Amino acid sequence: MTPEQQNDFKPMQEKIKALVRGQVGTTQGFPLDLWQDLGRKNLMGIVIPEKHGGLGLGLSRLALVTEELVISGVTMGFALSFLIHNLVAHHFILTHGTRELRNAYLPGLARGSITASVAVSEPGTGAHPKHLKTRARQQDDRVIIDGEKSFITNGPLADLFVVIAVTGKRENRNLFSAFVVPRDTPGLVPGVPMDLPMLRPCPHNTLGLNGCTIHGTAITGEVDRAYETMVIPFRRLEQALGPVILSGGIRHRANALAADLKGLVPASDLETIAALALRTSLVAHKDVESYEKAKDPAHPLITAKKFYRCAMEFQEHALQLTQEKKLAPSREADMFDNDLNALLRLFPG
User: What does the pLDDT look like over 114-129, one tens digit per residue?
Assistant: First the structure.
């Protein structure tokens, strides 16, 4: 950030630190009180326009807030939940939704009284369009959806699901549409939370759709073109912003190492750790800024490989220092290593 940007962000930075205090490292059970506090402070609606109750500050500011949450002490898993909620609101409702959908849902999404999730993947097939089986069919002015979804980030929390379903076929290829489905819709059956060994407390679950019936106006985006115009661009959006979760974790880890190793290693070693962490952060934000300016979902993420190298260099250097000084692995360090590896698989270089 430039000095001007740093000054502009400082009040929000202090607000985040105050909210996070007392929630550091929470992994057992989702901290709903923090989630609700973020909503009350308008931090769940960073990219939502002011006329809909948000702050209207854009993706670069969302990236800064996401990173700062982790620097301040929340887990990378919580930050993933926060980021996905904001990106679903931005991409599927604000960018592609009708005026009716925007008016109905954006104010609640901005306040955090509504949590959003997207349901693409299915059991045993992942998100490959050739193998997805969930189908939606028109019946008068209604749409009936049948199928099953899995690995839904924020699913156990979600009040609103964007469900990707097959709505046709052309030249042996599935055609998809996206439907906005409230949690209390008849025929929608949220599954039990999935016990995943990483990125806690970010919750995931399955979702059953058994004759799930919605109004025909609950479609978002173009009919039959949801995969190419929404699902693939959303994945690019995740890849552009996801690395700031990692850079936040790396900067938090660097601060912890500085405290643990103070007086045990030369000051120059701690300066190197801090510099590596800062470089990782700068690289992550460069891609976000480039993506946002381009306004093109296909815009190449030019620093992705560089980010991966920076993250691995930090990890190798940190491991070397802790092994040299025979520091006993802490629960936080083990969790960081586990989550770091998981996120590097989600957002590869």
Answer: 999 999 999 998 999 9
Question: Identical fold at 3-115 and 117-224?
Answer: no
Q: Answer yes or no: are the C-beta atoms of 159 and 182 closer than 8 Å.
A: yes
Closest by CA position to 251, among listed 243, 239, 241, 262: 243
In the predicted model, is pLDDT for residue 23 greater than 70? no
CA distances from 261 to 176, 252, 266, 314, 326 (A): 53, 14, 9, 15, 11
Tokens of 84: 């996905």
Beta-carbon count within 10 A of 302 CB? 11
Q: What is the largest CA-CA distance in the chain?
A: 73
**Secondary structure element (H or E) that encloses residue 229, with its range:** none
pTM for this entry = 0.93
For the chain, the domains span 3-115, 117-224, 242-346
Chain center to CA of 300: 19
In single-letter form, the type of residue at position 144 comes to I
pLDDT for the residue 305: 81
**Cβ neighbours of residue 58 closer than 8 Å, sequence gap 6 or more:** 46, 47, 292
Residues 6+ apart with CB under 8 A from 285: 1, 60, 63, 64, 67, 244, 247
**What is the Cα 199 distance to its own chain's centre?**
11
H runs (alpha helix) in 243-330: 243-261, 267-294, 304-324
CB 42 within 8 A of CB 15: no
What is 3-115's CATH superfamily? Answer: Acyl-CoA dehydrogenase/oxidase, N-terminal domain (1.10.540.10)
Per CATH, the number for 117-224 is: 2.40.110.10
